[in-house]
Amino acid sequence: MRGRLRSPDRGFTLIEVMLVLVIVGILAGSISLGLDSLRGRDEARVAERLRRVLEATAQRATTRGQPLAVELLADGYRFRQLGADGNWQRLDDPPVFAERLLPADHAWGDLRRNGQTRPAPGQQLVFGQHPPEYALELRTPHGSLRYTGRPGGDVVLAEAGLP
What we know:
Layout: H1 14-64, E1 68-73, E2 76-82, E3 88-91, E4 100-101, E5 107-113, E6 116-119, E7 124-127, E8 134-140, E9 143-149, E10 155-159
Antiparallel strand pairs: 1-2, 1-7, 2-3, 2-4, 5-6, 5-8, 8-9, 9-10
């Protein structure tokens, strides 16, 4: 009788398949966490950029003695300056005073100034020799942010509902 050579079994064992699935699951989870953290950083960047732009607008209007306005659009904001002819003209002075779009999941809330509260989209926030006092709400997926303009031109950023 001749001995048969046994051919090795083809394919993977159940343990090998499960090990690969566990590794793929761990990688997918870590990638998902990484993307969530990047999204949070982007949201923080958008919020901080708007705070700085509002302060820069107040500073430029004060130092140059020329009124500037931030026009709050439905999906972003842009800048206007009061021309010598008394008409508002578009200001596009990158990088600070360039028109910006809000992220798709952000929206303006209310704008409060001079004791009146109105929906922010379509409003113009005018900065002159003396910066205005105002409260501007920006709604994000993680809650609302409130920008409070102080008389000196400083802007305080806080979560809406907090003092």
